[in-house]
Each structure stands twice: as structure tokens, then as C-alpha cells.
């Protein structure tokens, strides 16, 4: 498994879910969901994250981890 490819898939999934939820700005999404804006922006560009951060992001999308990982990780 190539870690950098998997992290990029994660970044793409987060960004696509944000856009699907109607947010054009990652900053607005992060602010409205209590996530540090600069850190969230780094996640969308491919910075590795802690498990607790992933849980917070999935919760912001009203998703379980199973739902979150159901697409984009083939």
C-alpha cells in the first residue's frame, strides 16, 4: 500500500463531500463545524491526520466511518 496515494484519496474524499454538502469554501465548512480552519485546509490538500480528527470530520458530514469510506478508496 502506497501511503501517499491513500492520503490523497482521503483528501479527495473530504473535499468532494464538502462540495456535495454545498460549501464552496473549506474555511466556512471548518468554521461552522468547529474544526480548525487551517488544519482542515491541510487535510484537503493531503496532510496525514489523526484518527480523532477523522472522526470529527466524519461527524461533520453526518456519516459513520463505514459511510465515509464507502466511496473513493477502491
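^ C-alpha cells above, recovered residues below v
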Amino acid at each position: 500500500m502506497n501511503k501517499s496515494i491513500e492520503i490523497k484519496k482521503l483528501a479527495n474524499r473530504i473535499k468532494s463531500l464538502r462540495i456535495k454538502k454545498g460549501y464552496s469554501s473549506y474555511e466556512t465548512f471548518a468554521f461552522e463545524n468547529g474544526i480548525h480552519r487551517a488544519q482542515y485546509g491541510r487535510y484537503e490538500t493531503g496532510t496525514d491526520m489523526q484518527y480523532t480528527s477523522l472522526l470529527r470530520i466524519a461527524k461533520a458530514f453526518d456519516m459513520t466511518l463505514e459511510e465515509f469510506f464507502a466511496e473513493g478508496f477502491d
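The domain at 3-62 is CATH 1.10.260.40 (434 Repressor (Amino-terminal Domain)).
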